[in-house]
Amino acid sequence: MGAFTGISWLACFGALAQNWVEAVTYPTYKLQDVGGTVHKADGQGIGEVFCANVFGHYYLAHDVMGLLRRGAGRIVWVSSLEAYQWAYNVEDIEGRRSEFSYESSKRITDVLALTSSLTVTKPWAESFFRAEGEEAVRTEGRGSVKTYVCHPGICATAMIDLHPILWYCMTLSFFIARWLGSPWHTISTHTGANSAVHLALAREEELAEGMAERVKWGSGCDRAGNEVLIPTEVEGEGDEKWEELGRETWKQLEELRMAWKGALEAS
């Protein structure tokens, strides 16, 4: 979800005039609510978009880790083309102060998935990948559980509440971008699901050969709408700040999970 409240039309038309494909692939003119939270009865809160897009799934994945570890379990994180490097402030992991909470949550998704096997994230990743009740001495590492990240390209959905006429205009702008050569405007949610389905169902050998855990898998298509898979590197991956970003992200997520686990069990 996104805390979208509208569109800055002046910025939108300005972006379209400068570069149509860029404007409808990496939009920064969507207006979003700031400070949205969800609360328990005791008043404890958490960033709403962060909870919906990252933390809820993170918490659930850990709770079913016992099942995942019984076989060749896979966690497939769904990110976005809008996972901008600049949108995520590790000092505001929940995005409560951010005007781009959606993009922040998707950047966290990229970082979380692609740093899960790094040495610097090991203390917290091992805690996450350990099933409840298992002893640490027997569960070093993630076992057979694999972690992947993908995105659906650009789909025409009702994620932003638009008047039906505006929704059709948006969809037409996506078709124009595809005809202009954009590989990302899948438009159809069926086509957008291609990358996630591939990562869920492909043979282990095929994923291993393609080093699938090290890249971000995107759903794409050609001008005629034929499906293609496009692996890409994540912005900033491998630079001098990448490991520190991964370490701090994993640390905060795991500490937050333990804090909420204790609070929920006590309530």
Query: Could you state the order of secondary-structure elements as H and E?
Result: EHHEEEHHEHHEHHHHEEH
Q: Biggest sheet, in brief?
A: 4 strands, mixed
Indicate the low-confidence ranges by residue numbers. none
Shape: globular
How much of the sequence lies in strands comes to 5-15%
Q: What would you report as the Rg, rounded to the nearest angstrom?
A: 19 Å
Overall pLDDT metric: 92
* Separate helix tally: 11
State the helicity in percent bands.
Answer: 40-55%
- What structural class do helix, strand and pairing data support? alpha/beta
How many angstroms does the end-to-end distance come to?
27 Å
Q: How many β-strand runs?
A: 8
Strands in their spatial order, largest beta sheet: 5-6-7-8
Instruction: Give the domain tally.
Output: 1
Helices and strands, with pairings:
Elements: E1 4-7, H1 9-18, H2 20-25, E2 30-32, E3 37-39, E4 45-47, H3 48-63, H4 65-68, E5 74-78, H5 101-114, H6 122-129, E6 146-151, H7 164-179, H8 189-192, H9 194-201, H10 204-209, E7 216-221, E8 227-232, H11 242-266
Helix pairs in contact: 3-5, 5-11, 6-11
Please describe what this structure looks like.
This protein is an alpha/beta fold. It has one domain. It contains eleven helices and eight strands. Strands 5-6-7-8 form a four-stranded mixed β-sheet, sandwiched between helices. Strands 1-2 form a two-stranded antiparallel sheet. It has a two-stranded antiparallel sheet with strand order 3-4. A hairpin with a 5-residue loop joins strand 7 and strand 8. Helix 3 (48-63) packs parallel to helix 5. It is globular and about 55 Å long.
